[in-house]
Description:
The chain is of the alpha+beta class. It folds into two domains: about 1-115 and about 260-270, Diaminopimelate Epimerase, Chain A, domain 1 (Roll); about 120-255, Diaminopimelate Epimerase, Chain A, domain 1, CATH 3.10.310. It has helices spanning about 30-40, 70-85, 130-135, 155-160, 165-170, 220-230, and strands spanning about 1-10, 15-25, 45-50, 55-60, 65, 90-95, 100-105, 110-115, 120-125, 140-145, 145-150, 175-180, 190, 195, 200-205, 210, 235-240, 245-250, 255-260, 265-270. The strands form two sheets. The chain has an 18-stranded mixed beta sheet that branches. Strands 13-14 form a two-stranded antiparallel sheet. Strand 3 (about 45-50) and strand 4 (about 55-60) form a beta hairpin. The longest helix is centred in the first third of the chain and has 14 residues, at about 70-85. The protein starts with a strand and ends with a strand.
Amino acid sequence: MKMYQVDAFTTELFKGNPAAVIVLEDWLEDGLMQNIALENNLSETAFVKIIDAENYAIRWFTPTKEVDFCGHATLASSFVLFNQFGTAKTIQFHVKDLGIFVVDQDTDGKIRMNFPIRRAVAVTEYPEALRQALSKPFKQVYLNAQGYIVEYESVQDVLDESPDFELLKQLNGKRTAITAQNNFLDVAITSQDTQYDCISRYFAPSNGINEDPVTGSIHTGIAPLWADKLGKNELVAYQASARGGVLYCALQDQERIEISGYGKLYMQAELYL
Length: 273
């Protein structure tokens, strides 16, 4: 059984977020898929079941549990299907509870994923553990289906934050993202003359991931938030983990968002099961 490992949301090895991808004719037993994900010890391992040449079912496992949505492992899976399986340049992933994700690949290799928006709403009441876990001052707390999104005063505070992961585990399974607008008063972060619209980091210790390197799924909440604040529908986001990664975000309408990025193949392996 072949397994691929792809660095997602980057064009460079050892950047972005690594994900393992296994393409199957039929699902493996759930326990076996969980054990493979634990053995890989990556933030996510994606299992893709072939329906036909353009349609696939997909599931995602962290080292400790199955999750309902993972953006970077969807990009990694798309990269494998487009580049290793000779798949057509438009595919559809069928996702339990979230419907169909349409994914396209541009001629330059950029992978464009159409996701449902998971809009975040401002909340005034949140667990005291959240406040205690974060050491920097923040402006506002938002909540979407995936977790808390905390707006910070400055990019530098986002970069310097060192959260208490044990306290974050107390948030009833909710994950935590911190974010700030990138502006010249704080930190000017550029790449090939591209100004990032927002800088974020993402923590999910309850899923066995203290800090996720680059998270496509949470940007279905972060990007619409900043789109409203900045008055623009297309944003370039940077996730400021140690590995770092770039996400190109474009709101399609009130319900859908396109999140795009590149992938880089790191490894092709044979599993002996």
